[in-house]
Design a protein that fits this description.
alpha/beta, Rossmann fold, Tyrosyl-Transfer RNA Synthetase, 3 domains, 6-stranded mixed β-sheet, 5-stranded mixed β-sheet, about 45% helix
């Protein structure tokens, strides 16, 4: 299978500027770039699909450059709904350093900062040297701009397209970069760069986009209850990542294996068969979690996430180390307790149940466990001295819902 065929099979190509690019992808040797703005100091799971794509190209003999937009990040690309909040230069710099360090460690890409060439361009030169190539009607016809016309768009956001096009031109002139790769929402911006290079230099360059990764409802992949799942394990633990990945939709898990792993077509097709015939085993989901966590954090972190998950599933809470317990509790609803309290009262006060009557029903039906032990005594007292590491009491309601009580 050629590189292009593999990318198409994995669902990683949506739009291309020219069919000539197919042969160039298969031949290798292209210098290309992918960009991101430093809106945070870590990438999240949504970014990972984008940055695994250039790794595939790198492994096939192409030369990647990662552009972290220290300049464009001060402006922000247009969103479909409204304008982004401006971040301070200090925050952008901090985020840039975080992303640069993360990208170099995970992917081994060369990282550049577009602030390095923007900072020496004054407004007159910008308008004379670059603005003259852009007709307003051309810019208005771009989808992201057109969608904002009814609600309004600032000149700052409107100019973002020119800046991203300038990035491509600069890297083409200084690094021989002939290809830009991006998510499909950037199609208007990257084709503007292709057009700018043609007008300014006469050269033909290329671009292609990959579809945005979503769940079956169109929600961007990697969002957990409205919060991003970060690639920095200090912001999102390996256990939290494991829980998200093993619980993805059955209908989507094979697509995610194609996008987020380097498993071969034959390997993925075997998981597809098992996913259809024995979905309750969740083998495809577990493999997805193993591959992603091992790539990001190493096999030891994957084993730790697996151990935490199995301990919670089996009720073996007491075998968790303090570090593992802290990781496990990050995804649980929490409640602070400053004195020993009757279990019925605690269940109500911590909003684990809605009433004392409901609390008694759960307790007498053996549906409440404390640190892995079933409790059916209505007079049971939750005590700090009995807490795990004298700090944490883990309550499970039913089979799956966990809560952490933090003792002061």
């Amino acid at each position: 299978m050629t590189l292009y065929e593999d990318l198409k099979w994995r669902g990683l190509i949506k739009d291309m500027t020219s069919p000539e690019l197919i042969d160039k992808l298969n031949e290798g040797g292209l210098t290309f770039y992918i960009g991101t703005d430093p809106t945070a100091d870590s990438m999240h799971l949504g970014h990972l699909s984008s940055f695994l794509l250039p790794k595939r190209l790198k492994d096939a003999g192409h030369n990647p450059i990662l552009l972290v937009g220290g300049g464009t990040g001060l402006i922000g690309d247009p969103r479909p709904s409204d304008e982004r909040d401006m971040k301070s230069k200090e925050v952008i710099l901090k985020n840039y350093e975080g992303l640069k360090k993360q990208a170099e460690k995970l992917f081994g890409f060369e990282v550049v900062n577009n602030l390095d060439w923007y900072k020496d361009i004054n407004m007159i030169d910008f308008l004379r040297d670059y603005g003259k190539y852009f007709q307003i009607n051309y810019m208005l016809d771009k989808d992201i701009i057109r969608r904002r016309l009814d609600t309004g768009i600032s000149f700052t956001e409107f100019s973002y397209m020119i800046l991203q096009a300038l990035d491509f031109l600069h890297l083409h002139k200084t690094r021989g970069c002939d290809l830009q790769v991006a998510g499909s929402d950037q199609w208007g911006n990257i084709t503007a760069g292709v057009d700018l290079i043609k007008k300014a230099t006469g050269d033909t360059v290329y671009a292609f986009t990959m579809p945005l990764v979503t769940d079956s409802h169109g929600v961007k992949f990697g969002k957990s209850e409205g919060n991003a799942l970060w690639l920095d394990k200090n912001k999102t633990s390996s256990y939290e990542l494991y829980q998200f990945l093993v619980n993805v939709e059955d209908s989507m898990v094979i697509d995610y294996l194609k996008i987020y792993t380097f498993l071969s077509k034959e390997e993925i097709e075997k998981y597809e068969e098992v996913n259809k015939s024995e979905p309750h085993l969740r083998l495809a989901h577990k493999k997805l979690a193993e591959e992603v966590i091992t790539f990001l954090h190493g096999h030891e972190e994957y084993e730790k996430a697996l151990h935490i998950s199995e301990a919670l599933f089996k009720g073996n809470i007491k075998e968790l180390s303090k570090e593992e317990l802290i990781d496990a509790s990050k995804s649980m609803d929490s409640y602070e307790l400053d004195k020993d309290t009757n279990l019925v009262d605690l269940l109500v006060n911590a909003s684990i149940v809605t009433s004392k009557r409901e609390a008694r029903e759960f307790i007498t039906n053996n549906s409440i466990t404390i640190n892995g032990d079933k409790v059916n005594d209505l007079e049971f007292i939750v005590k700090k001295k009995d807490a795990l590491y004298q700090e944490y009491t883990i309550i499970r309601k039913g089979k799956k819902k966990y809560f952490v009580i933090k003792h002061k």
